[in-house]
């Protein structure tokens, strides 16, 4: 396997990982729009899975750089089918990369909105808990208080 074959295989792997990230983002965005099924645990799972893919992508990028460095004489190579295939893959990677950047910005806004709503719910729950605790504390100060109003039934 020559350097061009290794480079082509590396770029194909890189493109596949980027497609997985893109598909994951699309699924995540759909789930995020359906707020009844979406929760913080879903967000954490998405981020964990995405982190694995991004680490894989970074590793592939390092390999790509190393391959390019080992092929410093690539300028001397004549245009052949393998080089055209590599150029096609690079164009696909660039296009997908641009789409991912745009989608990431949109997803970030949606996640920030979701987290803002979650914080608001937490604040409401906190205030409710504080009010219930204060009521409980106040009522304990009074002990057993007899009802203040009595029915006056006449037979």
What's this entry about, in short?
With 155 residues, this protein is mainly α. The chain contains three helices and no strands.
Detailed description of the structure:
This protein is an all-alpha fold. It is 80% helix and 0% strand. It has 3 helices and no strands. Helix 1 runs antiparallel to helix 2 (40-70). It is rod-shaped and about 110 Å long. The model has no long low-confidence stretch (mean pLDDT 81).
Alpha-beta classification: mainly alpha
The overall strand count is: 0
- CA radius of gyration is 30 Å
Shape: rod-shaped
First-to-last CA distance = 107 Å
Mean pLDDT: 81
Number of domains: 1
CATH class: Mainly Alpha
Note poorly predicted spans.
Answer: none
Separate helix tally: 3
CATH topology name: Methane Monooxygenase Hydroxylase, Chain G, domain 1
Defining traits:
155 residues; mainly alpha; Methane Monooxygenase Hydroxylase, Chain G, domain 1
What does the secondary structure layout of this molecule look like, with pairings?
Elements lengths: L2 H31 L6 H31 L10 H62 L13
